């Protein structure tokens, strides 16, 4: 796997003779990188949480950036999270739990810190969205990409929307990309819900019918724990800096909680990016899940034809098709 | 999620009234822990690799234990790995690459260390096994568990084998557990292959038709990269100590390679457990994938009914059904 860096040259050696004149076969990452600027959609600063952890042992800064889910998903908890940020509630709290192949969790380890007034008690029914209200599209990202069963490139286009049945999924009758997010739905799409993929951020809770206030959050740092879908609220995803959580030492108490308070990593602050000064604001964009580029990217994730691969799978788990996100200005 | 530790008490509160007299609803982990001793199968010391990394910054030992795949899978590379271990080839090499949500990789960073004589050049056709030869069962673990589509508990039994169609999978026509391992197969099961689930250990390689000698190995430390199935050899899985790899700092060069040699973690030694003195040998056992206990465990992974959960999924990704493994004598 080391020599995969030699892709460009090696491609000449392994592409079958009859394809020599064709365009080089691009990897999914290369397809995203080659997407025209119009296919990238800026993420509003008001939808970004900026979590600054205490510096690491060598004094390096540790910044984690979270993109919040768009309406109509999980808005009750997200409203609470905005209030908690406004009250600077997380400042001085910590990452208290890191369980291998599962989650890193943060909040008030003492469980005694008073919550700010005005938080909603969000009911379980808000784990799913009923009816046909779509996620609020950013800019031109208005359609839903369903994943085809047969491995064919979906027929897509800016004006078009997509044909094709939903792809094979073990947890939901249908899965699809909607305004940049992986979403599950019931047969007939009467209800829809966000998915626990890698980097998803969710709301810790007590036993049902409690759904959590949003003060206790976790990020998925292992194989997608999709059994949590519809059982815990997903409120966003980490789009930068997840390694500051995923590479933390695992806790040795039950469920990966840290045994000693000294093991916890302090959270210096969590802010909404739009509350930072302009130069401090992180700026990210995602590849429109309505774009032709994304359709090609999905197809390439389902059928790896770049030179390293021998057998294309003909399908992919939706959580193994991460939506490309990059800093604005990156290439 | 913090209060999930209160499961036993809370169960009384949330089990519906008509079920009050029934046995308590167990979590998958509780089902495995309650399995009779006969359902656990000892792993032969000759099938365990013991990798000792240099101690961490605080002087704590870091031991990683890998279970090698049983025949007929990947035996060409595993034969090479046994020769490399016999030559103490990895002693003094290092972990050179840690890519977030993907792999940790180890071997000779210089790429100049001579390989021992007698290693086989294993052909690509050995990525799959043709015909009906089953994985060599350990002890009584003789059957194959296929995952049913409908969420019903598979009808199973020591003497029986299992009914039920294979479960929904995005990458393989069929997936099933075979002698303790998750295995994919073609329609009609004419060919079968091991899966890249979390903790799987694979063989790094150069461009096709090279398949790698086995000297360069990696472990999956993120969401299952199932697109690698049939494209790279899977030779085993980490059954203990994966946190010593998954929590390492991510490399900052392309593909997660470390930029500075000082970032690499030295491998003190890799040995076959049976070559260690008896008191030094780690002893592990796995839950027979033929057992009734495993069938109940699978069902519970597919339909979480323990008190924390509200909506059972009715299915599960095979890589989200890890085969229970524990130290011998643990409960």
Describe this structure in words.
The structure is a homodimer of 331-residue chains. By secondary structure, chain A is of the alpha+beta class. The first copy, chain A, has one domain (2-327): Cyclophilin (Beta Barrel), CATH 2.40.100.10. The first copy, chain A, has five helices and 16 strands. In chain A, the strands form three sheets. An eight-stranded antiparallel barrel of chain A has the order 2-3-13-11-12-5-4-14. Chain A has a five-stranded antiparallel beta sheet with strand order 6-10-9-8-7, with no helix packed on it.
Lay out the secondary structure.
The structure is a homodimer of 331-residue chains.
Chain A: H1 7-14, H2 28-33, E1 40-42, E2 48-53, E3 62-68, H3 75-86, E4 94-98, E5 103-107, E6 129-130, E7 144-146, E8 174-178, E9 181-185, E10 191-194, E11 200-203, E12 217-220, E13 234-240, H4 243-246, E14 265-272, E15 284-287, H5 292-302, E16 325-327
Name the descriptors:
alpha+beta; globular; Cyclophilin; five-stranded antiparallel beta sheet; 331 residues; disordered N terminus; 12% helix; eight-stranded antiparallel β-barrel; homodimer
Number of strands of chain A: 16
Biggest sheet: strand arrangement of chain A: 2-3-13-11-12-5-4-14
Q: Quaternary arrangement of the chains shown?
A: homodimer
Task: From the alpha carbons, calculate the radius of gyration of chain A and give it in angstroms.
Answer: 21 Å
**What is the count of helical runs of chain A?**
5
How far apart, in Å, are the first and last alpha carbons of chain A? 24 Å
CATH class of chain A: Mainly Beta
Q: Greatest interface and its residue counts?
A: A-B, 70 and 70 residues
**Helix and strand succession of chain A?**
HHEEEHEEEEEEEEEEHEEHE
Total domain count of chain A:
1
């Amino acid at each position: 796997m080391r020599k995969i860096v030699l892709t460009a040259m090696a491609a000449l050696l392994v592409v079958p003779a009859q394809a020599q004149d064709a365009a080089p076969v691009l990897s999914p990452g290369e397809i995203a990188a080659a997407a025209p600027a119009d296919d990238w959609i800026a993420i509003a600063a008001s939808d970004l949480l900026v979590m600054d952890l205490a510096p690491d042992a060598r004094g390096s800064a540790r910044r984690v950036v979270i993109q919040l889910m768009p309406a109509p998903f999980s808005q009750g908890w997200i409203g609470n999270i905005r209030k908690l940020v406004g009250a600077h509630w997380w400042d001085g709290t910590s990452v208290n739990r890191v369980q291998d192949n599962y989650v890193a969790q943060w909040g008030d380890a003492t469980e005694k810190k008073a919550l700010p007034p005005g938080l909603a008690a969000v009911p379980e029914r808000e784990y799913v969205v009923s009816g046909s209200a779509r996620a609020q599209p950013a800019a031109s990202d208005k359609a839903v990409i369903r994943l085809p069963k047969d491995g064919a490139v979906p027929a897509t286009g800016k004006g078009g929307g997509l044909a094709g049945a939903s792809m094979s999924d073990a947890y939901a009758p249908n899965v699809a990309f909607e305004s940049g997010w992986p979403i599950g739905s019931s047969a007939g799409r009467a209800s829809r819900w966000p998915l626990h993929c890698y980097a998803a951020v969710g709301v810790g809770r007590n036993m049902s019918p409690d759904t959590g206030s949003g003060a206790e959050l976790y990020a998925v740092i292992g194989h997608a724990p999709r059994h949590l879908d519809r059982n815990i609220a997903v409120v966003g995803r980490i789009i930068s800096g997840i390694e500051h959580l995923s590479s933390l030492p695992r806790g040795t108490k039950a469920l990966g909680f840290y045994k000693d308070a000294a093991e916890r990593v302090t959270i210096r602050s969590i802010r909404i990016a739009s509350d930072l000064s302009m130069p401090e604001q992180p700026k990210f964009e995602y590849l429109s899940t309505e774009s032709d580029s994304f359709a090609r990217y999905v197809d390439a994730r389902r059928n790896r034809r770049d030179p390293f691969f021998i057998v294309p799978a003909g399908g992919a788990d939706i959580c193994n098709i991460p939506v490309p996100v990059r800093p604005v200005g990156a290439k």
